[in-house]
Amino acid sequence: MLNTQPHLQACDDFYEALIAAHQGLSTPESHAMNARLVLLLANHIGDQATLLQALQLARGNPPHGALPAAAERKAITPVVPTHANA
Q1: CA 62 to mean position of chain CA atoms
Q2: Which SS3 state, helix, strand or coil, does residue 28 take?
Q3: pLDDT tens digits, residue range 69-82?
Q4: Does residue 46 lie within any of the structural domains?
Q5: CA atoms within 13 A on the CB side of 26
Q6: What is the dihedral of CA 7, 13, 14, 20, to 10 degrees?
Q7: How many domains is the chain built from?
Q8: Which residues fall within 8 angstroms of residue 28, CB to CB, at 6 or more apart?
Q9: Percent of the chain with pLDDT strictly greater than 90
Q10: By the 8 A CB rule, do 81 and 30 touch?
Q11: What's the domain range around 56?
């Protein structure tokens, strides 16, 4: 089960480290780093149901039900964090 309650210790410190990790990266490098981070954390979590629930919530879907079929999904363009270009 996905824990959506505040759980991260020193969340401001982590956010600053995340921002710093993007400094100096090009947009493609920043996207690639985010993808690697997601895959590393997904591997750490390991539970398929939890990961699918996280995908739903990250997309703004309600926490119940399945992800929409591919034909029903609209393509999205990833947004570059504004800090990545700073």
Answers
A1: 17
A2: helix
A3: 555 555 556 666 66
A4: yes
A5: 2
A6: 170
A7: 1
A8: none
A9: 55
A10: yes
A11: 28-62
